[in-house]
Design a protein that fits this description.
Layout (H helix, E strand, L loop, with lengths): L1 H6 L12 H17 L1 H22 L6 E2 L2 E2 H31 L3 H5 L5 H27 L10 H25 L3 H17 L12 H7 L3 H14 L6 H25 L6
Antiparallel strand pairs: 1-2
Helix pairs in contact: 2-6, 3-4, 3-6, 4-6, 4-7, 4-8, 4-10, 6-7, 6-11, 7-10, 7-11, 10-11
């Protein structure tokens, strides 16, 4: 019995190499999960970002003046799009894990011939896919009403992918840590939402006191949104080089943490 317990551990494969078929199968299953309910997963973020933009336009309009030498609405739109990218990437991976635990179907994933690395990466990359689709839809829609000229495609792709990957990994950990939906809601309301609204979506870093400027530089969501916005307006609130290096470290560290947490089996069963 002890030998069997040691032989069959969560996240430990019983053969070598990468199971590409299983990996892409899990990724496809996760993608189909959000495609089936596209009204909730794709249309809803678009409507939410659009309502934010509409309300602020009606309330402030062009009276706000330019921000970073850019019209306020043009400054605001990329931030709102990126905010949806981050929140939806987090939502996908966290809800995927929570649904699996609450409905007792996570065992199907665990018992598959997939390693912990393959499982975590497949779920996170599905979050990235969902975020990328939202980015394309939102940019295309907003372009009809606002001048959203892309100045740097490489920055746009980089910050979209790395931002959604980081939030996907954090969402995976949040879903595994939470024992019920209330716990997940608490993490979203008291951690993710404050970080998102304090990330420079609605304002430039120049309006903050010096101490808050320095603190903001360690907020990964601020760096993601700032880099994403820079790909459109060509002006940044902070060093893009610093953002790339810092987010690269956070990206690797977040996946590593998600990998080891899943491999440990912590709170796998609800």
């Amino acid at each position: 019995m002890v030998e069997l317990k040691n032989k069959y551990k969560i996240g430990v494969k019983r053969f070598s190499g990468v199971n590409w078929v299983g990996f892409f199968g899990l990724w496809e299953k996760e993608c189909s999960r959000f495609c089936v309910v596209w009204q909730q997963t794709i249309l809803s973020p678009l409507v939410s970002a659009g309502l934010f933009l509409l309300v602020l336009y009606l309330a402030i309009g062009n009276e706000r003046g330019e921000v970073l030498n850019t019209p306020f609405m043009t400054f605001l739109a990329p931030g709102l799009i990126c905010m949806q990218i981050c929140t939806q990437a987090f939502s996908h991976s966290s809800s995927s894990f929570m649904i699996g635990k609450m409905q007792n179907i996570l065992v199907d994933t665990i018992m598959a011939p997939l390693s912990a690395a393959e499982i975590t990466l497949a779920i996170i990359l599905a979050s990235v896919t969902r975020a990328a689709v939202i980015a394309i839809v939102c940019i295309g829609f907003f372009s009809f009403f606002i001048d959203l000229t892309i100045n740097n495609f490489l920055l746009l792709i980089f910050f979209t992918l790395i931002g959604s990957f980081i939030l996907g990994a954090l969402g995976l950990m949040a879903g595994q840590y939470s024992e019920k939906y209330d716990h997940l809601s608490a993490i979203t309301n008291f951690i993710l939402t404050p970080l998102t609204f304090c990330s420079g979506t609605f304002y430039s870093l120049d309006r903050l006191p010096e101490i808050l400027k320095q603190i903001s530089l360690f907020n990964p969501i601020f760096l993601i949104i700032n880099g994403f916005r820079t790909s459109f307006i060509g002006v940044s609130d902070c060093s893009i080089t610093y953002s790339i290096i810092f987010l690269g470290i956070i990206c690797f560290a977040s996946w590593l943490a998600a990998f080891f947490l899943f491999k440990s089996g912590y709170r796998i069963k609800s």
